[in-house]
Specification:
784 residues; alpha/beta; 7-stranded parallel β-sheet; 16% strand
C-alpha cells in the first residue's frame, strides 16, 4: 500500500495527472511537460556572468502548436488540490514575477481532483480526475466564449512556417503573432507591434505574413523600409521561404506578377518633380491589402511626410497597415501611436533582459574635468584657426558641436583604448557614437594613433562609418559578420543607430549629447543581441556625455544590470545609402547657413584630465546605487529579511539550506562571489550573510563542526553510523552545506567502505526517514 503523503510532485504527475489527460485523448504531441519558456536572466558579475533559472510550468496543453489552450499546475499530496491555482493564473496573465502566456484555461491538481479556472469568464469549478476535458471540448468552449469569426478560426487553424531545421517562435513571439493575426482577421486596419531590438521583429512579421497568406485572409503584401539593409536582411533571412513570391522594387519599377513587394519608401515616393506621377501610382490603391511598415518609429507617421503619402494612397477599405517598432513614440515628430493606435502587443527591453533573451549591460560613466568644470577662454583668445572665441562658458553640450578641444577627443580615445587593452578585449567590436561626421573623423584619427600597432596589421581595425563615407559603408557587412575580424573600432554619428545587427558588439561608447529617448533606446539596442557562441553574454556602455541619465527616466523600460563609474585615468546611421544631409538649423551638424562651413572653435592648447571614480550596481528594485558588492548583497538580504529574527526563522524552517541559498542568489544575494573574491572559504554562507546584514560575529565552519562534536550529539550514534556522520561533518567543513544535505554524497569514495548509499541508509540507519532525521539533527546543531 502506497503512502500517498510520501509521493513527490513528480510522482503525482506520473501516476495521476498524466494518465488523466491521456485518458481524454490528449496525445504526447499535444502537451509539453516542464515547459521552459524563458532562458533565465543573465546577471553581470565582477568576473563574468551568471544565468538564472529558466521559468517553467508543469504542463502546457496545445490545441495547435501555435495555440496553447491550457496550463496545469501540479502539487504533491501534502497540498490541497487547488493549491497551485494562483500560481497557474500568474503564468496565464503575467502576475507577480511571471510572464503572461495568454492561455484561456488554467488547472490545478494534486492528483485527487482538478480545479478549473476559465480565464475568459472568470468562473471556477472542481472536477474529478476522470472528467478532465478533451482537446475538442476546450476548443469548442474557447470558440463559443470568444465568439470567434470564420476568419479568426481560419487564421488560428493555419500553423506557423516550420521545418525540421527552423526555430519555433518563443512565447512572446507566439503571443505577438497570434494577437496580430487575430486583429487583422477581425478586420482591424491599423495594427502596431512593439518589440525591443534583438527580439525578432522581422521573424515575427514573417510568421504573421505567412499565416495571413496561407489562410487567404491577405493576398498581396507591400513591405516598406527606409534603408536597403533592412530590405535585404528581411528578404535573405527571415522571409527567405517566401522569396519565390517576392520581388524587390528597384529603380521605381513595380511588377504586378509578384505577391510580395519589398521597397524603400523614398523610391516609391519619388522626387518633388514626380508629383502626381510618383512610382507608387503604378498600382491601384487596392492592389495591396497588407502594408508592413518596418521601423515605424521613423517618419512614416508624420502627416506631411513623403512616406505618409504612400500609406494614404494604399489605404482602401480592405487594406491593413501593420507597423513594427522598438520605440512606440517618436520624440521629434508625430507619435506613431496617433496613427496606428495603442500597440497590439509590447515586449520591452526590460522584459527581454529579465527573460534572458537579450544581453544585459553595465555602464561605465567617465567624467572629464573640462566637462564637469566647463571651459572659458581668456579675454581676446583666438582658436587654432585664428578665430576670436566668443567669451562665454562652454560646457559638454558645446564640445564637438561648437567647441572642439583636441585633447578632449584624444583623452576619450585613450581611455577607450586603455580599457580594451587592460581587459584583453582589443578585438571586441565597438561602436563610438560621436556628435557629427567631423567629430567621427577626428575620433577615428585619435583611435588610430592609440592603436597603431594593430592598425599597421590591418587598416580596417579602426574605421569611420558615416553616410558620406563609401569606403566605411562598404565595410558594414563585415562589421556585422560574426566571423569577420575587421572592422573592430567603428566611429559614427547617426548611421548606426538603427537597423544594424552587430550581434558581437560588446562596447558602445557615447560621446554624443542625446536628449531623445527614442534615439537613446535605439542606440542601446545596438548591443542587446546575445551571441553566447561567440562569447557575447553582456555588453558595456561607456558614457562620456551623461546620456546614461536616461536610464532613470520613467520612459526607459529596461534597467542596467550594473554600472561602474570608472574614472581612474589608468552615431552611425548603419542603413542609409544616402549622404548625411546637414540641416542649417541643426547644431548637431554644426550648421549655420547653406553653403557655409559650420562655425566651430578649435582649441589645441587645452589639456584635459579624467576625474572621479565611482561604482554602481543594480539593487533589488532595479535602480542603480553607488555601492560595493558587499553593500549590494547586504541591501538585497535586508530587502528580503528586514530583521535578524526573520532571517533565522526562514533559515530554520528550510529543510534544504542549499535550495534556500540558491533562491537567495536568484534575488541578488551573491554570497559565492564574496567568498571567492575575499578567500573566505572557511566561512559558512549563513555566517557571511548574518555578519554582512545584521553585524553578527561570524563563526567559521571549523568552529561550527567543533561545536557539534562538543555538544554530545554524535554520542547518540554508535559504530558505523557515528563514523558516517563524522565523515559528513568533514564534507561540510571542506565543501559546504550542500554536501551534507545531498544523499548523492554517499556515492563518494570515502563512503565506499560503509557499503554505499543503500546499505548506509537501510541497514546502518534503519531506513530513509531515520537517515534524514539524523542529518536534520546535525544541521540543526550546526546552526544552533
Amino acid at each position: 500500500m502506497v503512502n500517498k503523503s510520501n509521493l513527490s510532485e513528480e510522482d503525482v504527475k506520473e501516476r495521476y495527472i498524466t494518465p488523466a489527460i491521456r485518458e481524454k485523448g490528449w496525445k504526447p504531441t499535444d502537451y509539453r511537460m516542464e515547459y521552459e519558456y524563458t532562458d533565465g536572466r543573465i546577471t553581470v558579475l565582477k568576473n563574468g556572468t551568471k544565468r538564472g533559472k529558466r521559468k517553467k510550468i508543469d504542463y502546457l496543453l496545445n490545441y495547435r502548436e501555435n495555440v496553447p489552450i491550457a496550463i496545469i499546475e501540479a502539487k504533491d499530496l501534502n497540498h490541497t488540490y487547488d493549491h497551485g491555482m494562483q500560481q497557474g493564473i500568474g503564468y496565464a496573465e503575467g502576475l507577480k514575477d511571471y510572464e503572461a502566456l495568454e492561455v484561456p484555461f488554467v488547472y490545478a491538481s494534486n492528483g485527487e481532483a482538478f480545479l478549473e479556472h476559465d480565464m475568459i469568464t472568470g468562473k471556477e469549478r472542481k472536477i474529478a480526475m476522470v472528467d478532465f476535458p478533451s482537446k475538442e471540448e476546450l476548443w469548442n468552449r474557447y470558440k463559443q466564449e470568444k465568439g470567434l469569426t470564420d476568419n479568426q478560426i481560419k487564421a488560428i487553424d493555419e500553423p506557423y512556417y516550420t521545418t525540421r531545421e527552423s526555430k519555433q517562435p518563443r512565447y512572446y513571439q507566439r503571443i505577438a503573432i497570434n494577437r496580430t493575426v487575430d486583429a487583422i482577421a477581425k478586420g482591424q486596419r491599423r495594427v502596431m507591434l512593439v518589440m525591443a531590438t534583438g527580439t525578432g521583429k522581422t521573424y515575427t512579421a514573417f510568421q504573421i505574413v505567412y499565416r495571413l497568406l496561407q489562410a487567404g485572409i491577405k493576398k498581396r503584401v507591400l513591405y516598406l523600409a527606409d534603408r536597403n539593409i533592412l530590405v535585404d536582411q528581411a528578404m535573405t533571412d527571415d522571409f527567405s521561404p517566401l522569396l519565390s513570391k517576392a520581388t524587390k522594387v528597384q529603380n521605381g519599377k513595380m511588377d504586378s506578377s509578384y505577391q510580395i513587394h519589398f521597397a524603400l519608401y523614398q523610391q516609391l515616393a519619388g522626387r518633388e518633380e514626380d508629383a502626381g506621377h510618383e512610382p507608387y501610382r503604378q498600382f491601384s490603391p487596392d492592389f495591396f491589402d497588407l502594408v508592413v511598415i518596418d521601423e515605424a518609429h521613423r517618419g512614416s507617421a508624420k502627416q506631411d511626410s513623403q512616406w505618409r503619402k504612400i500609406l494614404d494612397y494604399f489605404d482602401g477599405p480592405n487594406v491593413t497597415h501593420f507597423g513594427m517598432t522598438a520605440t512606440p513614440k517618436n520624440d521629434k515628430s508625430a507619435s506613431n501611436i496617433d496613427y496606428f493606435g495603442e500597440p497590439i502587443y509590447t515586449y520591452s527591453l526590460k522584459q527581454g533582459i529579465d527573460d534572458g533573451f537579450l544581453a544585459p549591460y553595465r555602464v561605465i560613466r567617465v567624467n572629464l574635468d573640462v566637462d564637469v568644470n566647463g571651459f572659458r577662454p581668456t579675454k581676446g583668445e583666438t582658436d587654432a584657426n585664428g578665430q576670436l572665441i566668443e567669451d562665454r562658458k562652454y560646457t559638454s553640450k558645446d564640445f564637438d558641436r561648437k567647441m572642439v578641444i583636441t585633447n578632449r577627443t584624444e583623452q576619450v580615445a585613450k581611455y577607450v583604448s586603455d580599457y580594451l587593452k587592460r581587459n584583453q578585449e582589443r578585438f571586441n567590436k565597438t561602436i563610438i557614437f560621436c556628435e557629427d561626421i567631423d567629430h567621427a573623423e577626428r575620433m577615428r584619427t585619435a583611435l588610430v594613433n592609440e592603436n597603431n600597432d594593430l592598425v599597421s596589421q590591418d587598416s580596417r581595425y579602426v574605421m569611420k562609418i558615416t553616410g558620406d563615407d563609401n569606403e566605411g559603408k562598404a565595410q558594414l557587412s563585415n562589421f556585422e559578420d560574426v566571423t569577420s575580424k575587421y572592422p573592430v573600432l567603428v566611429t559614427t554619428s547617426k548611421l548606426l543607430t538603427t537597423g544594424v545587427n552587430v550581434k558581437t558588439c560588446k562596447l558602445i561608447v557615447l560621446d554624443q549629447n542625446i536628449n531623445s529617448m527614442t534615439e537613446f533606446k535605439q542606440i542601446i539596442g545596438r548591443g542587446t543581441r546575445l551571441d553566447e557562441s561567440h562569447g557575447k553574454s553582456f555588453f558595456t556602455i561607456m558614457d562620456f556625455k551623461g546620456a546614461s541619465r536616461l536610464f532613470a527616466d520613467p520612459e526607459f523600460d529596461g534597467e542596467p544590470v550594473d554600472a561602474i563609474d570608472d574614472n581612474d585615468g589608468t552615431g552611425i546611421d548603419f542603413g542609409s545609402s544616402r549622404p548625411h544631409k546637414k540641416n542649417p538649423n541643426d547644431s548637431n551638424n554644426g550648421g549655420s547657413t547653406v553653403g557655409e562651413e559650420p562655425k566651430k572653435y578649435l582649441v589645441n592648447n587645452k589639456q584635459v584630465k579624467i576625474i572621479n571614480s565611482q561604482a554602481e550596481y543594480l539593487d533589488a528594485d532595479g535602480k542603480l546605487v553607488t555601492t560595493s558588492l558587499r553593500d549590494y548583497t547586504k541591501k538585497n538580504v535586508l530587502g528580503q529579511y528586514a530583521t535578524l529574527d526573520e532571517f533565522i526563522k526562514r533559515w530554520r524552517e528550510s529543510d534544504n539550506k542549499q535550495a534556500l541559498l540558491d533562491d537567495m542568489e536568484e534575488h541578488g544575494i551573491f554570497y559565492k562571489e564574496i567568498i571567492d573574491d575575499e578567500k573566505l572559504n572557511d566561512l559558512d554562507p549563513f555566517d557571511l550573510l548574518v555578519h554582512l546584514a545584521y553585524n553578527q560575529k561570524p563563526l567559521s565552519k571549523s568552529e561550527r563542526v567543533a561545536n557539534v562534536r562538543k555538544s554530545g550529539l554524535l554520542d547518540k550514534y554508535q559504530g558505523e553510523a557515528r563514523k558516517i556522520l563524522e565523515a559528513l561533518l568533514d564534507k561540510y567543513k571542506n565543501d559546504g552545506i550542500a554536501d551534507l544535505e545531498n544523499r548523492q554524497t554517499l556515492n563518494l569514495p570515502e563512503f565506499e567502505k560503509f557499503g554505499g548509499p543503500v546499505k548506509i541508509i537501510v541497514k546502518i540507519f534503519g531506513g530513509k526517514k531515520q537517515y534524514q532525521d539524523a542529518v536534520s539533527e546535525v544541521k540543526e546543531k550546526i546552526y544552533s
